[in-house]
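Hello again, I could really use a second opinion on something today. Take your time with it, there's no hurry, and the full record follows here:

___
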Amino acid sequence: MDLSLLQKISATLWRIEPTGAMHVPGLLFADEALVRAMDHKVYDQLCNVASLPGIVGAAYAMPDAHWGYGFPIGGVAAFDPDHGGIVSAGGVGFDISCGVRTLLTGLTGQQIEAVKRPLADRLYQTIPAGVGSHGRLRLANREMDAMLRGGARWAVEAGYGQTADLDRIEEGGRMAGADPEQVSRHAKERQREEMGTLGSGNHYLEVQEVVEVFDPEMAAAFGLALGDAVISIHCGSRGLGHQIGTDYLKAMVIAAPGHGLHLPDRELACAPLDSELGRAYLGAIRAGINCALANRQILTHLARETFAELLPEARLDLLYDVSHNTCKEEEHRVEGRPRRLFVHRKGATRAFGPGHASLPAELRAAGQPVIIGGSMGTSSHILAGLGSQQAFASACHGAGRSMSRHQATRRWQGRAVVDELSGRGILIRSPSLRGVAEEAPGAYKDVDAVVDAAAAAGLAKKVVRLAPLICVKG
């Protein structure tokens, strides 16, 4: 990205002055090296988002920002329903409520090493992964609608997990206001056999070890210590979420002229929050959020079953589950007063700070765990939210791609990536060597640099760094 287009506010904050149709500035959180490496399309997309009706404050980009569909991935924007605000399918993305949950095993990395290969093999046999993967469940119509209304709560009631899990999930495991009637039959059909599956792309189940502790007191509050083994699960709403995005993007493009909307980019298709289409989409994405929460809950149950076979002493308590492709109604202070806003986070994670009422009592003093996924062979991080209002209490969600999947497959071979990582003690299990090549660690930005920039910008506080031991890859 051309730095001459930006005004440097600090070492990790850059401003795009409003010009043309922009209603608000663009604000980019990153250090100079990360900004220089960003595609110019991030700049263009941030300017386009700043041109949408009813936007409040600024259009934000996180340190892991890269080009996406409509919004940049790593984009955050909030809209006021009382001042012409909109909801945008391009601001949520196709994988609705894609997110990460981390489980505490009560074991050490050393204990994992003793059974690492059979554990990797058994997890791969148990966790359905890859394009078109199917799970154990096949939901009938009534069960489908119950799942879309109930989320992880539905899953726990169906025997997948424990009630204590729900306190450690955003929204208590169930997004209110979900309306399965607004989800197409085709979307439901795509999901019918995909519950409890990872899917493909950058989704994974990873066994990790805490290899660095930045804040011992905060780590202890999260139940983490040096050498601990944890499990992180990264996936979303699978075919259902993708179809919701497809259905509503088309509907929004068609309806835009009738709503008086002149889109800077058709990929930013949107609808007024107070319109029939806007309300329908909110009902649908809330159902999509519940689908993702239920999906991760079922995968947690499968992981617990596997560990019980090989490591019966494992605990597998849920630390936290947080999504990063959502639009949620939240209250934030703007210019000194509280306002009800609809916050879009696309490839960005909610990062509520200490004392926030939505956090479970055990975590409230520390702040929300912010889980930053790595890229198969690289570090992951757990941070603590600070509730910074400069980005509506948001933080980055991962490393962010530095090249396309097509570029990655031209540069790496899947078997070579698997062998190289195995030589470093990281076992990869995947149904697709092409998928491994697409997700090669070198295809992503330096996650440690991204996390450092987020911490320096005051978006979240570094707590621990995790290294992968086993990765089941979609």
